[in-house]
Amino acid sequence: MTDAPNAQTLGANQAYCSSCGAVISNRAAACPKCGAPTGSRPEGVSPKSRLVAFLLCFFFGFLGIHRFYVGKIGTGILELVTIGGLGIWQIVDTILIILGEFTDKQGRKVTVWTD
């Protein structure tokens, strides 16, 4: 006999939604029932903000500031010394950020625009 008649045993990859109480995947970015964000990120996604990386690259890309932001210190210094590869590196990085292909130091893609 269980304590509650509607009690449900959670599986290994399940959790309760903090907003509506529905059983959801613990890897879900948002509850499929109510749409509330879960605060979790998919595996392989950087905790760095894509919006911040984009703005840093757009305004200060010739200095490599966006590379320092994502932890790429070595290439940040190279970009700083070469003035963004004479602007080419800045353009390439801006395109990569917009397309969601820019990565941080650990190789995780910087894909989340805001938190």
Describe the protein in words.
The radius of gyration is 20 Å and the shape is elongated. The protein has 5 helices and 2 strands. The chain is mainly alpha-helical. The longest helix is centred in the last third of the chain and has 12 residues, at 88-99. Strands 1-2 form a two-stranded antiparallel sheet. The protein has 2 domains: 1-40, no CATH class; 41-115, no CATH class. It is 36% helix and 5% strand.
Question: Mean pLDDT, as a whole number?
Answer: 81
Q: How many domains make up the coordinates?
A: 2
Profile the largest sheet: 2 strands, antiparallel
Protein structure class: mainly alpha
Number of strands: 2
Poorly predicted sequence stretches spanning 5 or more consecutive residues: 1-5
Primary descriptors:
mainly alpha; two-stranded antiparallel sheet; 5% strand; disordered N terminus
List the helices and strands and how they pair.
Layout: E1 14-16, E2 23-25, H1 50-60, H2 65-69, H3 73-81, H4 83-86, H5 88-99
Helix pairs in contact: 1-5
Describe the structure in brief.
The protein is mainly alpha-helical and 115 residues long. The chain has two domains: 1-40, no CATH class; 41-115, no CATH class. The protein has helices at 50-60, 65-69, 73-81, 83-86, 88-99; strands at residues 14-16, 23-25.
